Fold each of these.
Amino acid sequence: MNVKTKLKTLSIITATVYLLIIVVFVVNMLRFDDKQITAEYNFVYKMESSIKEALIQDNYDDIKSQLSKLTDEHSLEIAVDDGEKVIYSTVPHKVGMNHFDTVNKNAVLAESQTSLETPYGVRNVWYLMYTLSDTEVFGSYFANQAILMVIAFVVLSGAIAYLGFYVIKPMIKIRESIEQASNFNFETITPDTDAVNTEFYQFTGKLENKLGLVSRQYTELEKQLQINKEHLKNTLVVSRSFIHDLKTPLHQVILENDFYLANLPYQSEELIELTAINNSVIEKLIKNINEVLLIMKNDVYQELKDKETIDLEVLMYEVIKMFNTHIKNKKLSINLEFDNDVHVYSNKTTIRLLLHNLISNMIQYSKENSEASITVFETSESIEISFKNDSSEENIKRMKMSESIFNSIPSNDNQFSGGNGLFLIKDLTHILGGEYSLIQSDSIVKVIISIPKE
């Protein structure tokens, strides 16, 4: 018999016993009045039989002894004489005295005055039985009800004990098993005879197998992550090499400019000035390349700690100046609006790179012969820069695609961009602790960044 069947049998037996106890209990209550009548009748019958038994004795002392015992043990009065003298009396009595109706009827259960013929003569007897006490009437009734309650308690205790063995005990074990499972100690979980613990044991076994599989997959992912880290590391090394190699042709241009200028038979002031401008631009590019290489070489967040006070208006004009030719080719009109004296305390290289990508993005996706605007304003804790331009539907689509590093933009004709402009802008803004947003309304596109003042 399994546990489920046992519990069902226990429930049926317990319910049946309790139903029987309730029926008996209720029947006893309904027969309460009958109990009183029966008790009184039995008492009267018993006393009359005992009195009669005592009176048929020959020896008066025996009569007195038996009647005295009755009056000592029960609530009654007796007076007996033989017509000549009083044999026994609990009240003042004389031969021939009538005691009938001398006691309050409310206190009387039964009363009788009669003469009894015996082999030893006539016995004149009067007896009065007082109303029975509650104990005498209901003692057996309450005893029976108490026995029923005791039986009910015993049955309930037995059912609880049985339930505790087959239900509470498994619940305690399942709680311990859940605690072990939460600590991943699956080997300490053992099966049991009850269904709950057996199913939980099977569940934890499956869970352990799944965790083992996930753990192996996680190990494979760790290996793949390590491979990707090495790949990224190698890529950065190659990238640094490529960027570093950019300085060589720039140095070569400076040397060639100086060499050709020195070997010219006639050096005009315009040519000298143009050469100086070219060399100055090249030197700035080399400086920017060195700053980028420094960030790539070291921890970017460590390099960001190298801060200085930056005049955003001056830096903005410097960056825009680098795009003058492309602005003229697209016939763009750029409006700049600055709050007075806007400064930010941050890493200059990162700010310049961010502005470079923002301006490049704005120029790249603007329509020809359109207007663009750059607005810089200061709040209590940050600097907000807004880049607004009019763009085509196709360019807006490309711009949104450039927000993700994993999107490949087809037919990208921007020679200053790798196709992930907005992703780089968003990433640089977050590195600086700022916020980025892209807003589009029809053909108008607005990129807004907010960076901390310090």
Amino acid sequence: MKSTKQIATDCNLTYDALKYIIKREEIIPAKKENKRNFYNKWQEEYIHSVLCFAGLLKEITVESKINDEVEDTCLICEHRQEDKCHSKRFQFCGLRKSNKTKNKLLQIKSNDAACALFEEKKI
């Protein structure tokens, strides 16, 4: 998540100009913290596309588009655990903890990008 000021510096715009565009487009921030607005990557992409359409940016320079190709995923991680419940399968990380699940492990998606604890499965 990026703040309004961070997005403005990435786009080489003033804070006030970006704030005006966000207000005009009625973009609601994903998170508000200490009077600062934070936007997630989809909102950031939308802001960039609005700026490109308005002619304020020449091309979309979102970092998330650069990192689209992810090599390591949770699917090939050594610590991935699978739990079957009736016809469904739930994936869990064996190292990361969570208080929201019954087995106290963090529920993950297999196609998520790998975390810092990633170890490739040995065949």
